[in-house]
Design brief:
Strand order of the largest sheet of chain A: 9-10-11-13-12
Oligomer: heterotrimer
CATH topology of the largest domain in chain A: Ribosomal Protein S8, Chain: A, domain 1
CATH superfamily of chain C: GHMP Kinase, N-terminal domain
CATH class of chain C: Alpha Beta
Shape of chain A: flat
Number of strands of chain A: 17
Strand content of chain A: 25-35%
Largest interface: A-B, 33 and 37 residues
CATH superfamily of the largest domain in chain A: K Homology domain, type 1
Chains: A alpha+beta, B alpha+beta, C alpha+beta
Number of strands of chain C: 12
CATH class of the largest domain in chain A: Alpha Beta
Number of domains of chain A: 3
């Protein structure tokens, strides 16, 4: 029978001792060394029976297959486009995963996507060498026109989306902005300046309070106060 | 002339007052400010990010790159010409070695984590302040780390064993040693050890323990700084 | 490249006299400063305009004068873009941007002149005071020239001569004697995108700006340095409008500095 050294929902730092004992299972940013479990990053610890999980509160995005991300075209290649995801690894969008018609070799690809264009895409593949492939061929994926990108900590993206998309639905309703959220921490927003300014305040609030509970209610109260709207 | 008292009235084993804060440079991925007496260090972390030139990339592991620099107005005497020198190059290297054992580089292959350390004001113990600030900045950036590293200098001045020497103590006219240490918190392993001066083996062995105790005090300050950011819960209630 | 989405989006705000941080086009961000923050400097100032943070430090030394100015002290000004401040700055020799910023801030202080250089003379032809001002950018969120110039002036006002013993400087002791300040000098840079003029850009605005005009003024309102930057040209009417806006903003900034010099 082991000993847990921290409380559920406590904030822990790298190297902090979380538990002692072989029957605990470390997940997320928790790791085991001999019979002790430590944290690898600053994060929120979640204790669920024998599972000790650390949810990180900062850190770079690590591309994963299946993630929907927002990226910016930085280069036009022979066979597609290079896309910046705001992390250590660039991604490539191959022509076949972006365009439905037949594209001849040597055709000017900029008529489809040019440098500076923003896309909402899905990661189709990540190799062991961290080469990332994207696709636009799936439901909801598209080029995003107008609007602008706001950078947000990728580890806190789940809080912007909320359980069953509750947070993002509320943000859209209250501010009237179009919002697309990339798992890589790029958020694309488009609305009238006043609407966007309100949305930015809410986003800042979520960033600062991501580690707390009752966040959705707090943001709801803030938005109701600012807009005079009743949000369900 | 013998050494009996410290100029600032500290006990021989007392550290100077310390101050630490993270998230002080918002453009950086992680950052920290650390002060030890009159020695002040800023550290900023950028990364993991793409490593160029490409041929330097390692598919199995990321790399850590540290750069230590003293600002032109940070020295006790004349202006320091910018551009670094051999001393700052060496300190950059030992700083990197001091942090390497705890940074989990295999978590970010083909990329680099850059750590920049700049000191606007120094009064001895500058490489230790830099390493301590760097460890904080790495944690603030969310770089995966096994543990924190804490650094402090100890030494022997005349016949007294001292912790956290300041400039006047290093400059004592007589037998002096200035020994910077860095420790990994959980294991007590030493990742930085150098010396300027003269020391006997027996004293050095005693100093290792004194340094370890002192480094743990530095650790407490680091831990507090990292948790400080999450204290406010937005409605005026403080988390415990 | 397609028509610029980023600029068009920003212009929607500008049309309404709004910016991404909620300010008006002519508003400065919160300006805060702290003097004497660096004990090893003979004068210093830490300044923030919103997120942009710089630290300016003054170092004094005694040297031989230049042969063509045997009765004058010297001034050297350098703005350095520390790698702390941005993902784009690397350790190494100054890049062209920091050279430009250094020279623009230098010109304003030198031409006004901010210091009475003859009063920096100790013994004609033999010994004069050298004043070095180093401005280090700690966090780059735009408007570096204005913030650097502001910080440099505060650091000069904060500076005190060190004690001199037998012709040598004793850096351990500062006297109460201030530097011989002749004029207070402050740069204000006006930026332009499309037909809109604005001040104190955040980094995004700086990167999208088409042209900028720095006007450094001294306490009597006269201009002592000018620098046009940016890829796009300015029309004559632009200059008139930018001059007027710069005077307005200069009045705001010099008020803050005058509080310090009391």
């Amino acid at each position: 029978m082991g000993v847990v050294k921290v409380k559920d929902k406590e904030i822990v730092i790298p190297g902090q001792l979380l538990a002692e004992g072989m029957d605990f299972v470390p997940t997320g940013e928790a790791y085991r060394e001999d019979d002790k479990i430590y944290s690898k990053r600053i994060g929120l610890v979640e204790i669920n029976k024998r599972v000790i999980k650390v949810i990180p509160l900062s850190g770079s995005y690590s591309p994963k297959e299946g993630d929907t991300v927002i990226g910016v075209v930085t280069d036009v290649l022979v066979s597609g486009w290079r896309i910046d995801l705001g992390c250590a690894y660039d991604a490539v969008l191959p022509i076949k995963d972006a365009v439905n018609e037949f594209v001849k070799r040597g055709d000017d690809l900029t008529k489809y996507l040019d440098i500076g264009d923003v896309i909402f895409a899905k990661i189709s593949r990540v190799t062991s060498q961290m080469l990332v492939d994207l696709t636009l061929k799936d439901k909801g994926l598209t080029r995003l026109v107008g609007g602008r990108i706001v950078k947000f900590p990728s580890v806190k993206v789940p809080r912007i989306i909320g359980k069953n998309a509750s947070m993002i639905t509320m943000l859209k309703k209250a501010t009237g902005c179009k919002i697309y959220v990339g798992r890589n921490g790029y958020i694309w927003i488009d609305g009238k300046p006043n609407q966007e300014l309100l949305l930015m305040k809410a986003i800042k609030m979520i960033d600062e309070l991501a580690h707390t509970s009752g966040l959705t209610d707090r943001v709801k109260a803030f938005l109701e106060k600012e807009t005079g709207q009743k949000l369900g | 002339m013998s050494f009996d008292k410290r100029i600032d009235g500290r006990g021989f084993l007392d550290l100077r007052p310390m101050e630490a804060k993270v998230g002080v440079i918002e453009k950086a991925d992680g950052s920290a400010y650390f002060r030890m007496g009159d020695t002040v260090a800023y550290a900023a972390v950028y990364g993991p990010r793409e490593l160029v030139p490409r041929f330097k990339q390692n598919p199995k592991t990321g790399i850590l790159r540290c750069n230590y620099n003293m600002l032109p107005f940070s020295g006790v005497g004349e202006r320091i010409r910018p551009g670094g020198n051999r001393r700052s190059k060496e300190i950059s290297m030992v700083t990197e070695k001091a942090l390497l054992p705890v940074v989990l580089l295999d978590h970010f292959p083909n990329s680099v984590v850059d750590v920049f350390i700049e000191l606007p004001q120094t009064d001895a113990g500058s490489r230790c302040a830099g390493i301590t600030a760097a460890a904080l900045a790495l944690a603030d950036a969310g770089i995966p780390m096994k543990d924190l590293v804490s650094a402090v200098a100890v030494g022997k001045v005349d016949d007294k064993l001292l912790v956290d020497l300041r400039y006047e103590e290093e400059a004592f006219e007589g037998e002096v040693s200035d020994i910077p240490f860095a420790f990994i918190h959980n294991t007590g392993e030493i990742s930085l050890l150098q010396m300027d001066g003269i020391i006997d083996d027996e004293s050095l062995i005693k100093l290792v323990d004194l340094a370890r105790d002192a480094a743990e005090k530095v650790y407490e300050v680091q831990k507090k700084a990292l948790l400080e950011k999450f204290k406010k819960v937005g409605d005026g209630n403080e988390r415990k | 490249m397609r028509g610029n989405d980023e600029v068009n989006h920003m212009l929607k705000y500008f049309e309404n006299n709004l910016r991404y941080d909620g300010r008006g086009l002519k508003d400065f961000r919160d300006i805060t400063y702290e003097l004497g923050v660096v004990k090893t400097a003979e004068g210093s100032a830490s300044v923030r305009f919103g997120g942009t943070h710089v630290i300016a430090g003054v170092k004094l030394s005694i040297d031989q004068p230049y042969p063509d100015t045997p009765n004058k002290g010297n001034l050297m000004v350098e703005v350095s873009l520390s790698p702390l401040a941005s993902e784009n700055y690397m350790p190494g020799p100054p890049d062209i941007d920091s050279v430009e910023f250094s020279r623009v801030v230098d010109r304003g202080l030198r031409e006004a002149p901010a210091l009475d250089f003859e009063k920096l003379c100790i013994k004609e032809g033999e010994a004069v005071w050298n004043v070095s001002v180093d401005i280090v950018v700690i966090n780059d969120d735009g408007n570096l020239i204005d913030v650097s110039g502001f910080a440099a002036m505060l650091a000069l006002l904060n500076a005190r001569f060190p004690k001199v013993v037998d012709g040598k400087v004793d850096y351990h002791e500062l006297t109460d004697e201030k530097l011989p300040i002749k004029h207070i000098v402050v740069p204000t840079t006006i930026f332009k995108i499309d037909k809109y003029f604005f001040v104190d850009p955040i980094l995004e605005e700086f990167q999208l700006s088409e042209a900028r005009l720095t006007l450094t003024r001294r306490d009597d309102g006269k201009i002592c340095a000018i620098q046009k930057g940016g890829d796009y040209p300015l029309k004559k009417e632009d200059i008139t409008e930018m001059l007027a806006l710069s005077k307005e903003k200069f009045d705001e900034l010099i008020k803050i500095i005058k509080e310090v010099s009391q």
